[in-house]
Amino acid sequence: MITTDILIIGAGPCGLFTVFEAGLLKLRCHLVDALPIPGGQCSEIYPKKPIYDIPGCPAILAGELIDNLMKQIEPFKAGFTLGERAEKIERQADHSFILTTNKGTKIQAPVVTIAGGLGSFEPRKPPIENLAIFEEKGVDYIIKDPEKFRGKSLVIAGGGDSALDWTILLADVASEVSLVHRRSSFRGALDSVEKVIKLAEEGKINLYTEAQVKELIGKESLNQVVIHQKDKEPMQIATDYFIPLFGLSPKLGPIAAWGLELERSSIVVNPFDYSTNVEGIYAIGDINTYPGKLKLILCGFHEGTIAMQSAFKYIYPDQRLSFKYTTVAGVKGFE
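Now predict its structure.
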């Protein structure tokens, strides 16, 4: 039996930063993640994707962010159970929790913090009849390494941040990039939208709005897509890759059976301290929901910080919380 102060389910960026904030309060952490390595989506899906909204970093690769977070939490010696899924949670007579993984590992803690991102997930796929035929033969749903596309022609579909960000980055990598979006307006950050429009005006990318990819053409691998655009005849475009970036379809998995209040596929929390309806369980990052929720990594960092302040008071109700600024004491002063 592993024992700890804070059991964190999910070793993505928010879960990792929570280790740091808990460590400042001298709370020990143990993390559980179904993936074999720390970092969540940042490590598994887009380690080479640049992130622009981390304070103090004009741009940082997702994988590099995880490396930095791992260095940041080294002094606090967190435990990790990786490659195992959080399966069952049971409350004990002393009000602590025992979590059992799908491989039988048991971890006991007075506080559980769920930082599971989107939970288990799969890419949302467009309704194209022969899409599955070209998977791994020209159709990619995830971009792990942009170098794979150097000198290639690409058609990207989507209108959110992921589609915009990759279009901007791959414009300097691929031989040709076409962005196809079914609407005339985009859902992503305004700065990214402006950059994409500028790239199109400069002739560095092809931009098709109010349009959709409807057909894929090829023999052994993809070589053309057919785009249907409003008020225009369908057009065939030669391409090496079709990359639909419509986000991920979240699935909570076993967490959905833990008695937590849910709204769709998210855990409802109190924005005062990100506690759930089950006393002693918190939820932070993309997996939670509350009025005004923004699914940003930096917001998850904030949520983890506040949750740990609340967790300390929950574990030690009779102790006075004396929080020191790291600029005054330094991290070593908390060891």
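Helices lie at 13-24, 41-44, 62-73, 161-170, 190-201, 297-315, 326-329.
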